[in-house]
């Protein structure tokens, strides 16, 4: 790969990763603010509402936003606007279907939440129609970020994602912080969805050049044929994300659901990195595979994993080490304890240690979309089979453990599938020697810090414990990593370029 191409790839990756991390931070702040402002019962209610909304949204989009990347490269500039608005129109129709599905689902809520207090169930039923309206207006705007990226407007896409995330935060949190009711805040969220829809239409209209006609050169059948298989895989993936929470909501009480909602989160700032990097590298994987350059493909695959591992693995171990202080400091309020969420949170985040790459990107490069769907279904089945008995006998700790076991099992068979495509044994699919060096260094840095924290700092002083844990871990990991040449001078240079945000003003 030429230096020019590598630089361009690095810049695009930097923009995408920056935007995804910042929007993830906003989403995380939203979750934290909701926990701290609301009672545990109200938090369970809004958490359930947002879960249903997200499932419905992912059901509606069905891979159509991803089709933008595929077809924009095959269309001239004067045909892109028509295709973009065809995509938005399709999602307006599916948005109506999703909103209707939420309304229908509302009738089944009492039968599903049998362990919840009657007042909580009635509140969910009262507010679900508002989430249906949000879905109706939000879903058609979902492809806009991809449209901007596909049109080579990376910075516009970054600001669009940051702006919409910020607007949703303001719409929901500010009314709650000012003391307004949950119902009023959800009406403000409806206002956000309407404003997002209008602004998105205007933005796309002015960014894309006028075409020969308003229509699209790509038929609905063509677009649907490409999009729906991807959508099914993504949909199953989203069900995987929530199936354990559904199990907890059915088998356990509402307060346990609130605790598990806090615990069952892979730290989003960390997990977004491999997916953002994979979305940039996938086109290069496809190109190298088509050219039968297997050695170059493997080298790029390894390089991406090694660089992501340097961020994901130590940050994951750090989060596990500081979990007690993090959970208690962020989520605890007077009279409301989330101490029970600490252990399941630590178990759940062990999953992140295997998220050192976007495995679906390499499978797509080999045209193995059926494999992607198969592994999503396989993980869903494993989650259901394991989570029910584990939750029944061990509570939310068992739920987290069952989810970890299911993910490790699915990870192994994914590596076997990738190995067949690359003609490699499982042991060679990932750069395991480098990965275990990083993992070992992370554990060595983390264990003494965890011990020292409780020896010299009071268990109740969570802020001091958090500051101590973060600073000492990072200093130890970075110093040892540099000394052992696991972190190279080139790694330091690229990292410093990235945190200086040079890619935003080049």
Automatic annotation (TrEMBL):
Chief subcellular location: membrane
InterPro entries: Poly_Biosynth_Transport (IPR050833)
Entry annotated with the keyword Translocase: no
Superkingdom as given in the UniProt entry: Bacteria
Keyword match Magnesium: no
The protein, known as: Oligosaccharide flippase family protein
Subcellular location: Cell membrane
Organism: Gracilimonas halophila
Membrane spanning residue stretches: 21-39, 45-71, 83-108, 128-151, 158-178, 184-208, 308-331, 337-357, 369-386, 392-413, 434-457, 463-487
């Amino acid at each position: 790969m030429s230096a020019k191409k590598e630089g361009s790839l690095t810049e695009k990756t930097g923009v995408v990763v920056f935007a995804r991390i910042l929007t993830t931070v906003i989403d995380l702040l939203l979750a934290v603010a909701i926990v701290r402002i609301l009672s545990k019962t109200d938090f369970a209610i809004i958490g359930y509402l947002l879960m249903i909304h997200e499932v419905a949204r992912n059901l509606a989009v069905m891979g159509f936003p991803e089709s933008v990347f595929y077809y924009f490269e095959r269309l001239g500039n004067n045909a892109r606007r028509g295709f973009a608005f065809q995509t938005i129109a399709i999602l307006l129709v599916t948005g109506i279907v999703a909103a209707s599905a939420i309304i229908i689902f509302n009738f089944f809520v009492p039968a599903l939440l049998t362990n919840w207090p009657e007042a909580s169930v009635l509140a969910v039923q009262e507010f679900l129609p508002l989430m249906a309206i949000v879905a109706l207006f939000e879903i058609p705007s979902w492809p806009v970020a991809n449209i901007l990226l596909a049109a080579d407007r990376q910075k516009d896409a970054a600001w669009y994602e940051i702006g919409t995330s910020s607007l949703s935060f303001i719409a929901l949190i500010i009314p709650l912080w000012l003391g307004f009711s949950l119902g009023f805040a959800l009406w403000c969220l409806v206002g956000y969805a309407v404003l997002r829809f209008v602004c998105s239409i205007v933005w796309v209209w002015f960014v894309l050049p006028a075409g020969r006609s308003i229509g699209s050169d790509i038929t609905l059948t063509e677009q649907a044929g490409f999009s729906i298989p991807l959508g099914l895989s993504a949909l199953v993936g989203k069900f995987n994300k929530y199936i354990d929470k559904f199990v907890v909501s059915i088998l356990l009480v509402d307060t346990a659901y609130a605790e598990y909602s806090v615990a069952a989160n892979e730290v989003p700032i960390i997990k977004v990195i491999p997916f953002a990097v994979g979305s940039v590298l996938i086109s290069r994987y496809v190109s190298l595979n088509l050219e039968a350059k297997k050695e170059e493909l493997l080298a790029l695959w390894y390089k991406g994993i090694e660089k992501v591992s340097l961020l994901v693995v130590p940050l994951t171990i750090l989060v596990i080490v500081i979990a007690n202080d993090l959970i208690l400091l962020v989520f605890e309020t007077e009279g409301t304890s989330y101490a029970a969420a600490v252990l399941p949170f630590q178990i759940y985040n062990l999953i992140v240690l295997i998220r050192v790459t976007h495995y679906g990107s390499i499978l797509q490069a080999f045209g193995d979309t059926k494999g992607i769907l198969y592994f999503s279904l396989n993980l869903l089945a494993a989650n259901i089979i394991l989570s029910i008995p584990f939750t029944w006998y061990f509570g939310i700790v068992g739920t987290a453990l069952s989810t970890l076991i299911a993910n490790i099992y699915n990870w192994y068979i994914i590596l076997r599938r990738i190995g067949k495509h690359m003609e490699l044994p499982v042991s060679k699919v990932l750069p395991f020697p480098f990965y275990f060096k990083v993992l070992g260094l992370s554990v060595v840095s983390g264990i003494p810090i965890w011990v020292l924290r409780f020896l010299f700092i009071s268990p109740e002083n969570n802020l001091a414990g958090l500051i101590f844990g973060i600073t000492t871990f990072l200093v130890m990991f970075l110093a040892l990593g540099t000394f052992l040449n696991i972190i190279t001078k080139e790694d330091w240079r690229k990292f410093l370029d990235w945190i200086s945000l040079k890619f935003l003003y080049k």
